[in-house]
Specification:
Blueprint: H1 3-22, H2 27-37, H3 54-78
Helix pairs in contact: 1-2, 2-3
């Protein structure tokens, strides 16, 4: 897949996850949507992880941390 198409899918899943978080309050579905977004790397997919700039690594690590936080929050809310 080409990088520009990945960017559109990545941004689309992020927007969907934000919508599900703030408007429908469905945190588990938001975590799933944002997690799927990680599969569509918005940066150069041919570049190896060690060769990427630190800011790109930081963006992806913060993204996965946000997905884990949403998942944990969703599980915590449904734990009764």
């Amino acid at each position: 897949m080409k990088t520009p198409f990945n960017k559109f899918l990545y941004i689309g899943f992020i927007i969907m996850g934000l919508y599900q978080t703030f408007f429908t309050n469905d945190y588990m579905q938001a975590a799933a949507s944002m997690g799927i977004g990680l599969a569509f790397d918005p940066f150069d997919t041919e570049q190896k992880w060690n060769e990427r700039p630190n800011w790109q690594k930081a963006v992806l690590i913060i993204h996965i941390a946000a997905v884990a936080a949403l998942f944990g929050y969703g599980v915590g809310l449904n734990d009764k």
